[in-house]
Write a structure and sequence with these properties.
The structure is a homodimer of 334-residue chains. By secondary structure, the first copy, chain A, is an alpha/beta fold. Among the domains of chain A are: 1-43, 434 Repressor (Amino-terminal Domain); 161-289, Rossmann fold (3-Layer(aba) Sandwich). Chain A has helices spanning 4-11, 15-23, 30-43, 48-51, 73-87, 99-104, 107-114, 129-133, 161-174, 190-205, 225-234, 245-257, 291-306; strands at 57-62, 91-96, 119-122, 141-144, 154-159, 180-184, 215-217, 239-242, 267-269, 286-288, 311-316, 319-321. In chain A, strands 2-1-3-4-5-11 form a 6-stranded parallel sheet, covered by helices on one side. A 4-stranded parallel sheet of chain A has the order 7-6-8-9, sandwiched between helices. In chain A, helix 1 packs across helix 2 (15-23) and helix 3 (30-43) packs across helix 7. Chain A is elongated. The interface between A and B is medium-sized, with 26 and 26 residues. Strand 11 (311-316) of chain A pairs antiparallel with strand 11 of chain B, so a sheet runs across the interface.
Chain lengths: 334, 334
């Protein structure tokens, strides 16, 4: 383990200056402070309060996710994380990690400068700076729905997508559907790839043919439906599986605007079971991700990583919620 | 939640008799006691000390696994589980679950009768009674390397096999091997299937052709090698990936008995990194499963399930251990 002396020796400066740099003192220059932090990260220096596990504070970085009100995806995740953290005596700070912040300073430097022994990263995309740094970071970190294999300091928490897609596909299969479309989320995301794999797996298990024209990448929002739904319908889709409830809400809107009924003409399913799901018309058949438990599990995982237990992933059991947006396939000629 | 009165009403007996049946009193008949327990399980009755989380004892069922000495697979797993459990104030009992015991009494009845709020099942095979009952049990239970999807009370802990097989395959690929055989474990096991999937995935990623003649199911012991290794060699295998260190030790023995050198003629890799791995000649290149952390994670998972957090799985990060049993592929003509 590197010491303050090692950092001083590396930079050819005094230990006092190193301490000032690490402690954010105002009487050294900003370039010197950055040089100290940079060397400290490079040498794997850890402050005493982190080594002794006396630092009882962790942080959550949020990006591209709304979490301020209870109907938003992130709200309960953060609530569950905080609940579990507080029960173990940890303080939690939520930080908005915009791209600018990520470019300015490396993740490890930020964590060292603020004395956080661990972090939870919410909804970063594969090309973000922080996510790229996850391959090499030595700071215990948990990612939501984003997997960085091979680094024992980084774990991922999510819901078992194989189970979720299997439940939905089985349901549609039982209802007689054989022309099933899949409107996935944003392409640059691990979770999108996992959902696609799970969709293929589930369709194969039920021996339903997969047709390329019925599979598309959209975005995790309501607006992407317009681009794909008319083609799906033209190509004979009788059911559309959506990778999120927001996508499904858009799909229902587009189908209605085309004069089609849901579920009489086309069945639609969601994913997440956001609070909006049951208020849609028709109420959405979907997969519930228990977001409070996701948050709690994220802290459990982070706590394990901070104690040197190299958990790679925790996946939760999803729950299939049958409502009104999927029904028996329309018999030909009716 | 069912009460003692509900059980009494269902059976048409007094509450006093039900209490006696539940508490193992000696002055009621065995058939009556079984009837009480059976009805209690059916109605979902839970003793007060379990509902109030006052029962601070859990159990580990072991079958087909040696765990008495440190060089055996189960030893450190149980040690890690106990360590984590004790730190949370739980007592742990290790129970040998032979098939006879499983036939005599259902899992839920056993757990109710002994007042255990949760259990860890070590190394049961897919067709065992207890494993079959995992689809419907309401008792929080953790399985090692055995996944029962769809039951929110049951979770699974293991090592990420995709990572493990990817690391091994990449290593052999770098060493120039393109005729890679895979000697898997016992067929009736989820972990064997997972390893097979992971092997296919890893081979595809490296664009190495998979040849059916180079893939076989053996058993998780040293003796299965004789049946398959001569055929592998005849079919041109330059490297043999084994699903466990025990299998690998057998493979090395057979290769030696055929007059072949490891790794000069054929490379061999293991899985698990048991204590024997580094004593083999040559020392085994393998994948380490951190067994203490597996045990610790099993308790973390069980604790989460007992608190109503429906974690479906926890997977640990494996570690690739390069030793001497895999080397550069022999160039033709040498």
């Amino acid at each position: 383990m590197a010491t303050i002396k090692d950092i001083a020796a590396k930079l050819g400066i005094s230990s006092g200056t190193v301490s000032k740099g690490l402690n954010g003192a105002s009487d050294i220059s900003e370039p010197m402070r950055q040089a100290v932090l940079h060397a400290a990260v490079e040498l794997g220096y850890k402050p005493k309060n982190i080594v002794n596990k006396a630092s009882k504070k962790v942080c959550i970085f949020v990006q591209n996710m709304n979490y301020e009100s209870i109907d938003q995806f992130g709200y309960e995740i953060i609530y569950g994380f905080e609940q579990e953290a507080l029960s173990k005596g940890f303080q939690v700070t939520v930080i908005s990690a915009n791209l600018n912040m990520q470019t300015k300073e490396s993740f490890d430097t930020y964590m060292l400068r603020h004395g956080y022994p661990g972090a939870f990263l919410l909804d970063f995309e594969l090309h973000d700076d922080y996510v790229t740094q996850m391959h090499t970071t030595k700071v215990p970190t948990v990612l939501l729905n984003n997997h960085v294999p091979g680094n024992p300091h980084v774990g991922y928490v999510g819901t078992d997508n194989y189970e979720g897609l299997k439940d939905i596909t089985s349901h549609l299969h039982e209802l007689g559907h054989r022309n099933i479309a899949f409107l996935n989320g944003t392409k640059n995301s691990m979770i999108t790839q996992k959902k696609l794999d799970a969709f293929y797996y589930a369709m194969k298990e039920k021996k339903i043919p997969i047709r390329d024209k019925l599979v598309a990448f959209g975005h995790y929002n309501i607006d992407c439906a317009q681009e794909f739904v008319p083609d799906f319908v033209r190509n004979g889709a009788t059911a559309i599986i959506c990778a999120s409830d927001f996508i499904a809400s858009g799909v229902i809107k587009v189908l209605h605007s085309m004069g089609l009924r849901v579920p009489e003409d086309v069945s639609v399913t969601g994913y997440d079971d956001l609070p909006i799901a049951r208020f849609l018309s028709p109420a959405l058949t979907t997969i519930r991700q228990n977001r409070t438990d996701l948050g709690k599990s994220a802290f459990l995982l982070l706590d394990a990583l901070m104690n040197g237990i190299a958990i790679s992933r925790i996946e939760l059991c999803p729950q299939f919620i049958a409502r009104d947006s999927a029904a028996q396939v329309k018999t030909l000629g009716k």
